Fold:
Amino acid sequence: MITRRKFLHRTGLATTALLMDHLPPFAQSAPVKALTLDSNTLAKFVDPLPIPPIAKPDRYQPSPLDPSVKIPYFRLAMQPFEMKVHRDLKPARMWGFASGFPGPTFDVRSGQEILVEWVNQLPAKHFLPVDHNLAGAGADQPEVRTVVHLHGGKVPPESDGYPEDWIVPGKSALCHYPNNQDAAMLWYHDHAMGINRLNIYAGLMGVYLLRDDAEDALRLPNGKYEIPLVISDRFLTPEGQLYYPVSDKPNAPWVPEVFGDTMIVNGKIFPFLDVDARKYRFRVLNASNARFYHLSFANGATFSQIGTDQGLLPAPVSLKALMIAPGERVDLVVDFSGHRGEEMILKNDAFVMMQFRVSRDKVDDASLLPATLRPVQKIPESQAVKTRMLSLDEYVNRVAEPILMLLNGTYWHQPITENPVLDTTEIWTLINPTDDSHPIHLHLVRFQILDRRRFETSSYMSKREVKFTGEAELPDASEAGWKDTVRAQPGMVTRIIVHFEGYAGRYVWHCHILEHEDNEMMRPYQVLAKP
Ligand code: C2O
Ligand code: CU
Ligand code: CU
Structure:
């Protein structure tokens, strides 16, 4: 049997630039529409916004670092369950942590390590379309596999959720999270090789809030005034079940991207939240497979961004709209005090996300929005000991359908090429000649965005030479903090500066568009111990 990958090798298409990209943006075809529910027919703002419960430790157990210290131990099962995503729909079948979508929220402190046992209690058969042509998802592999990754965590390699370290139903994996890093909103999600997009679509993810004293001292809104907003999109069948689109090739159902037409916040379609006329802190996560969101309030209200993926910005940034890519997080403060009695709609361009119903009553608000938050020391470029040029490529077939995405022209299974030395700094130059923005994520580390610069894509495709056509553009204020996921914009070279610290060992870097990640847009990388 000739798999698509072998076919590519044989014909040499994967090594020629001729058939690569210049694609029209992938559009969902008409047949998808007929199979799915039009969410615009659903009543809006009839379900209150769910707030996932806080995970509670099951017991205390000796630390793997020092057995004389007892640390919190959590046990979270991945289970099939049913939940109503809207008042007027029947419960949808999902897979989630502790029967939740999103799963329970971890609320933990910097410097306080924890243990989590992730238990796979899923059935042996997947309910979403597995593509056996994808690396790691062959017909000879167990169909249902899971491995949990703590996105944004500085975690030892054996607990990081390496995509091939999956477990099957009936098994569990114990992970140690040292939490030795600044306060930030992390998240946990499945990372199983070749089916990650399906497992997360099924619901396998949750929020992980890491706090520290420096953040507490700022007296930002907290308690019931601090709310996670986990944003995602799905297709639903007319019966209200999850629908994951497939290609027109029955033996190769993978599709290049999924852009669902139903917007879901914390597990509900078009939820509402009753709020007091005061400041709130919203911890926003884009947990979608592929959709980028351009969020704003329909009434044009301004709000403040106070943090990025890896924690607080140096100072609040006042915004009327923001962009968030899959895997990214933003930390917002919204002040409703000037909107008493109003109903404010949060939207994603033309899509309605949710509604805030602001109380008429005046309230005292002791929380603060300080003018300065946490200093972010710029890493000087001169500190970098190495610069890597890394291309992001899409490959198309003869009829211009994307069939494969690679990082720097290399497949997952090829030998490791990115091998920074522990405690050194590198610049990673992401060259994106495609028409897509790719949110590139590195495990283990946090980094800073240096700049983005336009270049000549067609000459790059033929000669693999970068010819700049514009000036370097600095990241805007809302990206000028610590990041772990960066939008590598189409037709641009995006440079990040990374200090590799924490642990030596094997990790991964990848595009966080889950369909890309599952089809080779992911590579292992190795942090080498100091010589
Ligand atoms: Cu959100 Cu490799 O992860
Ligand atoms: Cu990650
Ligand atoms: Cu991508």
Q: What stands out?
A: The radius of gyration is 22 Å.
